[in-house]
Design a protein that fits this description.
2 copies of one chain form a homodimer. Helix content of chain A is about 40%, strand content about 15%. Chain A is an alpha/beta fold. The first copy, chain A, has one domain: Rossmann fold. In chain A, strands 1, 2, 3, 6, 7 and 8 form a 6-stranded parallel β-sheet that branches. Chain A has a two-stranded antiparallel ribbon with strand order 4-5. In chain A, helix 1 packs across helix 6. The relative contact order of chain A is 0.19.
Chain lengths: ~180, ~180
């Protein structure tokens, strides 16, 4: 199972970015988590840009090729980050996004506004948001880097549960006849 | 009173952009509404970019020079547009944004998710969100262009009320000793 990370922070020292890198190291065999596309390279959403710019087409292709998405993103001023929302704005209406199994990892217990807004947007976009694959991991301020996160039993347990739940959702869709890209 | 428009859509045919241009034509004498900075020219928010890029510094300067802001922005997938949130992400912590009188004009009766999220973010950023200056104008799908909007008595009434309320808030702040940029 090929999963794709989407990171809503562009900071080098981002805990969300570190968590996604640790997630990739902990993914069980038979699955993989590809690094997040550089969402900071996307233009700001503008449907007048037709055909869509290369960075947008690359995002579309990466999402289409993935069996599921793992999103980790910060909250800024009680809202989603402009970076993750801009990436999602470019994915609205993309055929390959519909029913795509998605896990949302929230790294801050205080970030409930952004987490709720993100989930509302994902549901509105008809993503296959998987509740059992989505977790609150209170990492903000813990000062853990990628290696420390990869060594954490709690993080390992979350990764195992998230991947299992995404895999189960994908299997459920395939047996129930839901057409989900990529067709294999 | 110098007001600054902030438009959360980059579409040429955006009803929000048309409304802001009509608003500028209807502003009563003694006030003015400057066109929205091109928010699509901003990079995606990244605090590692230090010093901030020129487009960000230009936005900061335009906001600092304004006596108030008029925001009109669409809802995308039950959320704020990535474009307006990205602009606000760059304004978090800007001294000149705190207590700045802000009017929010919502052009779609269905866009209550984005309107609520935008207001929550503005309050969190300590903007001087002025409820009496903020309106729902159900324009989406009405097919009105800038000229038609500028000729609408309903739009004219909203502009007059919004400007009066922003002016009253600014005056209240000045007499109550709140320090609001620009100091005059």
């Amino acid at each position: 199972m090929k999963l794709l990370a989407l990171c809503g922070s562009l900071r080098v020292a981002s805990v969300n970015a570190a968590l996604l890198r640790a997630f990739a190291r902990l993914v069980p065999s038979g699955a993989g988590l590809a690094p997040s596309p550089r969402l900071g390279d996307l233009p700001l959403f503008n449907p007048d840009l037709d055909p869509a710019p290369p960075a947008v087409l690359a995002l579309h292709a990466a999402v289409a090729a993935a069996d599921g998405l793992v999103i980790a993103t910060p909250e800024y001023a009680h809202g989603v980050s402009g970076t993750i929302k801009n990436a999602l704005d470019w994915l609205v209406g993309l055929e390959a996004f519909v029913h795509k199994p998605v896990a949302v990892i929230n790294t801050s217990p205080r970030a409930h506004h952004a987490d709720a807004a993100l989930r509302e947007t994902l549901r509105t976009m008809s993503a296959g948001l998987v509740g059992e694959a989505s977790f609150l991991l209170p990492l903000l301020g813990a000062g853990l880097d990628e290696s420390a996160l990869a060594a954490s039993p709690q993080v390992a347990a979350v990764v195992a549960e998230a991947v299992a739940a995404l895999r189960a959702e994908r299997a459920r869709q395939q047996t129930s006849g839901v057409a989900v890209f990529p067709l294999r």
